[in-house]
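Supplementary Methods S3. Input chains for the assembly prediction are listed below.
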Amino acid sequence: MSCRQWLSSAMRQCQSVLARPQPSRALSTSAPAAAGFKRTPSDTPSRPSGPAHRMAPRQPNHNAGLQGLVSEGMGRRGSAGPLSSEERRGMLGGRGRGSGEQARGDTRAHIQDMRQNTVTENYARQMPRRWRAGDAYSPRDLSPYEMGKWRKSRRPDGDVVDILGFNPVDNYKNFALISEFMTSAGRIKHSRETGLRPVNQRKMAKAIRRAIGMGLHPSVHKHPELLRFGSRQGNVAAVPSTSDPSQARL
Amino acid sequence: MSTRSMSPGGALLRASRMFSLPAPLPAPKIDQGASIFHSETAMLPYPTHQVITTLNSSRERGDWGLKRPLPLRSTTKSTHPMLRVKAVDTAEQITDYASAADHGMTLKKFQELNMPVTILRTAGGGRIHTNDRTNVPRMSAFEDKLDKTHIPASKRAAAVEDRWRFEGPWLAGMSQGDFKTWLAEEVRPKRSQFRRFLKKKLAKEMSDKAAGKALDKAQELPDRIKAGSITDDQVTDYVRHLRTDNQALFEMVGEFLDLAPLKPPKPSHSAVGSQPVGSKFEFRDVNSPWAESGPPITHPSAGLSYLRTSMFLTNHPIYGPQMHQAAAEARILRLRRPGQVLGAKYGLAGFVVDAPMGDTSSNRQGQTVANLETFDPNLKGGAKTWVQPQSVLVNSSGHIMITVGDATPEVVLVTKELLGDAVCLDAPFAGPAEETASDLRARYKAADPPSMSSAEQYGL
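Predicted structure tokens for the full assembly:
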């Protein structure tokens, strides 16, 4: 039985016990966050209102925690993928030990941890800028308006062929380079995407056509070697060779 | 349209800093790796335009000392009047201006840190590498030995390790394409000039040799050989000889083109397979602080701070002299995530800094540090942490690199007390006494009339 199936069956059980799902909470960003960070013991028993009340202390039922976890996961885990082995072990452990106080506390802490993580990830996604040491920033740079600009890719500023000073036509065998200038469907990228000036764009297109025509590069998708490398982390693009004879002399 | 001839007085006024704004600096280069994802409106790493300010009384009239008064609606609301003028007058007959509070306030915040700007040398002159973040006292950017701007042309070659400004480029920082363009456009036209330069060098070398021989034999010194008497064949032979001696050749070329010093390659890198027969690669070590990462684009201090050293004691009125300078509060800009190699990033005085390196008490490795790993949306004003600024460096691209360490709890407490955020000697901070309306009136009456602006007001 897969993890997802197990979770959904657990959820069905919980529905019967609580019979009061809170769909609006699952969609809100800040309310669960507030719940996640309210860990003070005075909060839970005394106040009947508020989101923290969902894990009702009067009901010694660990399913309540599961219910919260599942609805949380359904609502805000974008991928809704299976839990990691560690998380799953934690949950199973809590289940196996029955309704002991210790187990309940563990589960609760774990769920709160997971909630915190989700909130952190959600907010981190709102800050796509990769800060580098030495950058200057003003309050405006932290605003959502400015951050949104770091999310979308733009056309490169310079002509990479001119910057690196190589001749694309001589590099028709460099499949990493050729693939960079092709779409995944095997089409030559437009110069508005590549940022090459017309002369270099024509040369690059010629190199791509040559590589495909000679059967060195597939015409429908990326090069299989790149797909093999793609599973690893890291950049595979090789530095193009300069075939200028004057360079050899130096 | 023909250019109008300008009177000498007009030319003087145009060139003077008193009456005209300096030409803007070239915009900082966007790093190639980051060029696909970037924002054109983000704050630049350094200001390119002069920041201008004005007195409050003038600001209310829109008077910024420019050709025409500026609109009041957009210039009178901010607490700190700071503007940058992109164009004093355009074809549309407007003054193009924008707020410069970002860089202006950053400068003020930076100066509150009380940090001197340093260079990549220890205070004793020893070498520090670019990526070295150890906390050793560093040499000031104003050290007399290395802070020279005016060097007579005849002494330039000798002072190559003490200078920070060079006519030629720093070769290691050039891309292949730039290098080719530079060769074609700058270097090739200078061929005949270089041969003349070599003739002079050869004449001097030959004269010195002849003089040395004569001295050995106790003969009379021969006449100095003149550069004009060297033949072209001799120069060609000399060039061939130089080609087998890479260091001598680089020194000749470097002196001729005034290249910035280069860090010699590591021994393992120099053992190239394509070594010409009969030649050997030998490199002389250079001691310039700019050899490793390139010369700075501004004065090494960038005008941020004119302090010479951070080796001074701060005195506390009650606790006495303090071992450390005051700590500073840094914003946590990027969290440390478990799966990621990249560490946390802080924002200090408007600059992004790396979290303290290694396993420190605020950045403990292998353990959960709550404020560095989780984001708390309920925290007002965002997550912050206390750090101890250690050194400041302006790197070769003009970025301000601040090194921070952990602030000890004692320093944090003392700093907080001084700011009024913590209790001092168990006595709660009282705050200013309640003032009645008559007190206020008396205070304003007694106040001095608004004085001329002081340099301090402008953050100098």
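The longest helix of chain B spans residues 191-216. Chain B touches chain A through 48 residues (CB under 8 Å).
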